[in-house]
Amino acid sequence: MEVTKLKLFTEDFYKTLEDITPTAKVPVLMDGDATVWDSLAILEYVNEQYLQGRAWPSNSAERAKARAIASEMHSGFFDLRNELPMNIRARRKVDLTEGARKDIARIDAIWAEQAKLHPNGWLFGEWSIADAMYAPVALRFQTYGIELSEGAKAYQQKALASESLKQWLEEASQETDIVEEDEAGVEA
Questions:
Q1: For the chain, what is the largest distance between any 2 Cα atoms, rounded to a whole number of angstroms?
Q2: Which residue from 11, 17, 33, 124 has the highest number of Cβ atoms inside 10 Å of its Cβ?
């Protein structure tokens, strides 16, 4: 696997992306002749190409719910995204707006409900695309010290203990760039 590192929000960043994807945004996956942009589209592609469709629950009702929950993350929670930017290495405190508190409450409710239904820790029993969509949120909640209900906290801990997130955290710890836009709030 080859990763191209670009300094965010620079002329080179946008020019490089314009040459690869029509949206000039990340993420983008280039796999052989396929160029796939958009996080959910990338997850669907990987599921079909490499996971034999196993990244969604096999039960149709559970699969529909997993897709709804993943789509809710994909297309929503704007206040949370704006107020709690991705900043894996930091530990920060922010004053949340009512909108961000509502987003957090909804995510907490999703995680807690699924924890009751699937006590092994993943949202739908086995790891799924829904879990991939919420991995960045688990990290954001850790960065900003967000208080969660018992069930939601159990899910967050399961996600943070996964080998893939541990690898992500290890790689992030080696990053040296600071994105000023992502230095929200104050140091905790």
A1: 47
A2: 124
